[in-house]
Design goal:
Radius of gyration: 20 Å
Strand content: 15-25%
Order of helices and strands: HHEEEEEE
Distance between the termini: 25 Å
Number of strands: 6
Shape: elongated
Helix content: 40-55%
Strand order of the largest sheet: 2-1-6
Number of domains: 1
Largest sheet: 3 strands, antiparallel
Length: 115
């Protein structure tokens, strides 16, 4: 599950915690509010990682057991467009850990949906 964990977001929240400590927040009310928001944010990061992990496991099980055809998205981002791939056992795709592989091409299992 930790391969889906967003370490960058955790780093940002850790930095904010250190910054708040360095600013020496004297008000007990504002300190409790800050740490409450910090705790909720970290909880959301863990929930997001668990959701991505369970999606990948579900897609891999559908692929192996039900011989399902999946529509997977790879790439994308700020300056590139995402490519869509049809993934199935009949098309020669295989599973390796949390990836679907065909020849030398890999697609993450959590970026797919049932077609």
């Amino acid at each position: 599950m930790f391969e889906y964990f967003n370490y960058g977001a955790l780093g940002v929240f850790s930095f904010l915690g250190v910054l708040a400590t360095l600013m020496n927040i004297n008000s007990k009310k504002s300190l409790i509010g800050f740490y409450s928001i910090l705790l909720i944010s970290v909880g959301l990061i863990f929930f997001s990682a668990y959701y991505e992990y369970s999606t990948a496991i579900e897609n891999i099980n559908n692929f192996k057991k039900n011989n399902a055809t999946l529509k997977c998205i790879s790439g994308g981002g700020l300056y590139t467009k995402a490519d869509t791939y049809r993934v199935s056992l009949d098309d020669g795709w295989k599973v390796d850990k949390d990836y679907f592989i065909k020849e030398s091409f890999m697609v993450r299992a959590n970026k797919c949906e049932r077609w």
